[in-house]
């Protein structure tokens, strides 16, 4: 079957089956964000059943993100991420129950930020891997890592709506 004749579901299946774990994580964020944005429109248009189904799909993605963490690798980071995911999940439940876009927007802000952070992390890893192939030393630039690199952020210490700068 050629790509022209492939159905969207076949294309998505192939994309998922060939994606790296990092790309899968990004796809999950994209899906949750897309369903939340569609649910917001459905709520605004009074489409109760449609909004319920869309928010439920976003909730399922968040639960998958929560279950897929590997505590043995970074337990503190996993605990912090679980808190963020739980908050998003609670906001989605509230949006679904009250048919209110405000809690949905709270969840969307966090999901967009997590997606952006994940994308920046993937880019940083790609640059470091490329630099590692280009030199034999620990740092291709010969510079020390920026101040704060490797520090763990506790998301529970941030006010809702706070932004983070993760560049570097």
What report would you give on this structure?
The longest helix is centred in the last third of the chain and has 34 residues, at 101-134. The radius of gyration is 19 Å and the shape is globular. It has a domain at 19-127: Four Helix Bundle (Hemerythrin (Met), subunit A) (Up-down Bundle), CATH 1.20.120.340. The chain has helices at residues 8-18, 21-44, 48-67, 75-98, 101-134. It contains five helices and no strands. The protein is an all-alpha fold.
Write the layout of secondary structure elements.
Blueprint lengths: L7 H11 L2 H24 L3 H20 L7 H24 L2 H34 L34
Please sum up the structure shown.
With 168 residues, this protein is mostly helical.
Number of helical regions: 5
Task: Please report the distance between the alpha carbons of the first and last residues.
Answer: 44 Å
Report the count of strand segments. 0
Shape: globular
Fill in the keyword field for this structure:
mainly alpha, 67% helix, disordered C terminus, 168 residues
């Amino acid at each position: 079957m050629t790509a022209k004749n492939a159905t969207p579901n076949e294309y998505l299946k192939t994309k998922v089956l060939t994606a790296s774990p990092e790309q899968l994580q990004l796809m999950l964020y994209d899906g949750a964000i897309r369903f939340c944005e569609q649910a917001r429109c459905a709520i605004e248009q009074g489409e109760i059943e449609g909004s319920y189904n869309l928010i439920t799909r976003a909730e399922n993605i968040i639960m998958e993100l929560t279950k897929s963490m590997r505590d043995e690798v970074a337990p503190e980071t996993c605990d912090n991420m679980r808190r963020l995911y739980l908050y998003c999940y609670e906001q989605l439940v509230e949006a679904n129950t009250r048919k209110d876009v405000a809690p949905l927007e709270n969840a969307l802000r966090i999901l967009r930020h997590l997606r952006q952070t994940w994308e920046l992390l993937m880019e940083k890893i790609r640059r470091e891997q490329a630099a590692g192939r280009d030199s034999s030393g620990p740092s291709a630039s010969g510079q020390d890592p920026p101040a704060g690199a490797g520090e763990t952020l506790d998301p529970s210490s941030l006010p809702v709506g706070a932004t983070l700068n993760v560049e570097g």
